[in-house]
């Protein structure tokens, strides 16, 4: 591991890792505030500080891409979160 950042409160972290053949930036998201566009902007700004080649991002984005396939019950309004991304 060459570089790391952990957001206050642990809502996301970013790691730069290097293997023998590849450099990667790993981004893990969890429990971001969906009505706060600053959450995604902050992640983007932090990612630009890292040197890794390919970026792998995963976690809980608090929205679904396809409501019919990915969600059952609850609020299905994703429009605000998708605009923030």
- Average pLDDT number: 76
Biggest sheet strand order reads 1-2-3-4
- The computed structural class is alpha+beta
- What oligomeric state do the depicted chains represent? single chain
Largest sheet: number of strands, sense, barrel closure: 4 strands, mixed
Radius of gyration: 15 Å
Low-confidence parts lasting 5 or more residues at pLDDT below 50? none
Following the backbone from N to C, one meets helices and strands in this order, namely: EEEHEHH
Discrete helix count: 3
Q: How many beta-strand runs?
A: 4
Question: Shape from CA axes?
Answer: globular
Number of domains: 1
How does this structure look, described?
- The chain has one domain.
- The protein contains 3 helices and 4 strands.
- The protein has helices spanning 37-47, 67-70, 79-84; strands at residues 3-6, 12-18, 23-29, 54-59.
Concise description?
The chain is of the alpha+beta class and 85 residues long.
Descriptive key words:
25% helix, four-stranded mixed sheet, 85 residues, 3 helices, 4 strands, globular, alpha+beta
